[in-house]
Each structure stands twice: as C-alpha cells, then as structure tokens.
Design brief:
By secondary structure, the protein is an all-beta fold. The protein has 2 domains: 138 residues, Jelly Rolls (Sandwich), CATH 2.60.120; 137 residues, no CATH class. It contains 2 helices and 26 strands. It comes from Agrilus planipennis (Emerald ash borer).
C-alpha cells in the first residue's frame, strides 16, 4: 500500500485537485474550520460539481452543495467538528448519485444527499479558507477495497417490479430469481428478487429480510464459476459492501430444489442466502464473474 499523501492548504479557498475514480475519499485534516472537498469530472472548478464543506460557518455546520449554487442541498449542525490543534478523520463516498460523508471509524454517514443526475466523479479537490489553513493526510483510494464495480448496471425498482433486461441468477419453483442489491442496516447487500412475492430479499443478521426498494442488475453478460470458503476470482465484480465497508460479491447455491442468489462475504468464508425466513451460509457456492 502506498504511503499517505500529505498536503497543506492555505487560507485562500483555492482547490488542489487529485485524480480519484475509486468512489471514496478517506482523509484526516487539521484545521480550525472550513475543510472543503470538491468532487468533479475535471481537475478544475467546472459544472457539474459537488462540494462538501466540513466545519463551515465558524465550525458550526457541514453542508453539501451542487454547482456552487444556493440553497445548499443538505445541511447538518456539526459544532466543533474540526480542530486546529489535532487531526480529525473523515470519509466522503459517492455512488449511484448519492454523496455521503462520515467520521473515521464510523460506518453511518452524518451527512448525505442523493442527486437524480449521476455525475461521474474523476477528481477530488481540497482547500481551506475563511480564516483557516489546513494540513491533510490523504489515504490511498483503491477501487477493489471499497468501491462497487462500474462494470455493473443497477436499475432502481420496487414492489416486485423487474426492469427490462434484468439478469436472471437463479430460480425458485420454476420462477426466475433476479440479482438485486439494497441499502440495508448501513450496508449495500446483494440478494434475490422473486417478482410474484412483490418484494426482494437480502440475507443479514441471521434472517431473510424483505426489502420493498432495491436495485436490479441489468444488461450484464456474466457467468458463474464454482468456488468455496470465501474465495472469489479476480474478475468477480464487487456488488455491495458491509456496514464496515468490506466488499460483498454475488454468489448462489443450490438448496432444496432452488438455485438461490445471495452474498459472498470473504472474511466469513461463506456465501449467505436468504431462504425460508432465515439467513443460511454455505462454504461451497458459485460466484458471478464478468
């Protein structure tokens, strides 16, 4: 792993840009107030652009802004969130139009907003201002560790609806099972959709959890390969992540006459499926690869 990048920013509100297509920006910053982060398509302040202000307005609140326009699209009180005498750690993540901001070591964001326009982010800019200079320690961002694959097309749906060209991953009683994922308990969890049930399901916490809103994998030309004990091939795209940001992969198993789609969690060494109200785990499974 590469050493962290150290950057000093003066009190001038001028962004320093770094390339970043990983889907996340992990950093620590020492500043009295106004640590600003820009998410852009180019290494410049051009529309479209998102901005995150941490500790703005005298270190009293944090906001998300689009295209430098007011009113701000999201705002939350964060008194004392920055400190001029010590480093404070944060993360910023972006995927499927959702921008989220959180504290280092915490999986839940304290600030988030979803844009209907899904802007492809290629650069991150940092700066300080309004009376504050800053020192930043920026961690290496690696797509394989915490970012979901850009090779996969996910279409939002709900209520058992199936978008056109949905990917069939299994079957249950002669009915197709579609590959889905859903936001659940702070993570993005792969699972299954059985349209006649009017809902999708994700395995989590020992239970089969129904989810009324989900994303369906579409337009995907993938194949299944056998594996076991948490192993996934290099060409297996990450499709979700746990609440601790561990990547999750799509797996399936044959169980009681069904071919049931679920999630592979490498650190647990198994593929989990939701079936009969329970979360079941299997050491042997198939992995979806690109």
């Amino acid at each position: 792993m590469s050493a962290p990048i150290e950057v000093e920013t003066p009190d001038e509100l001028k962004y320093n840009f770094l390339p970043n297509i990983s889907g996340q920006f992990q950093f620590r910053v020492r500043a009295a107030n106004d640590a600003h982060i820009a998410l852009t398509t180019e290494a410049a302040e051009t529309d479209p652009m998102y901005e995150v202000f941490i500790g703005g307005w005298g270190n009293s609140k944090s906001i998300i802004r689009k295209n430098r326009s007011k009113p701000d699209v999201a705002e939350v009180p964060t008194p004392g969130i920055l400190n001029a005498g010590e480093f404070r750690g944060f993360w910023v993540r972006w995927r499927n139009g959702t921008i989220s901001v959180g504290n280092e070591g915490e999986s839940q964001p304290f600030l988030s907003w979803t844009d209907s326009e899904n802007i492809p982010i290629s650069y991150v800019g940092i700066c300080t201002g309004w009376g504050a200079s800053g020192k930043w320690i920026i961690e290496e961002s690696t797509p394989n560790s915490s970012t979901l694959s850009s090779k996969m097309c996910w279409i939002p749906a709900s209520g058992g609806n199936v978008p056109p060209r949905a990917f069939v991953g299994g079957e249950d009683n002669g009915e197709p099972q579609y590959v889905i994922r859903a936001n659940f308990q702070g993570g993005i969890i792969p699972g299954k959709l059985i349209s006649s049930h009017g809902t999708a399901y994700v395995p989590w916490g020992g239970e089969e959890n129904p989810v009324s809103e989900y994303e369906v994998l579409c337009d995907f030309n993938g194949t299944w390969v056998p594996s076991s004990e948490g192993k996934v091939p290099p060409n297996a795209p990450a499709a979700g992540e746990t609440e601790e940001s561990e990547p999750l992969f799509i797996g399936r198993v044959t169980h009681e006459g069904t071919i049931t789609v679920g999630k592979i969690q490498p650190s647990h060494g198994v593929c989990y499926i939701s079936y009969g109200g329970q979360e079941l785990n299997f050491a042997n499974y198939e992995v979806l690869v690109a």
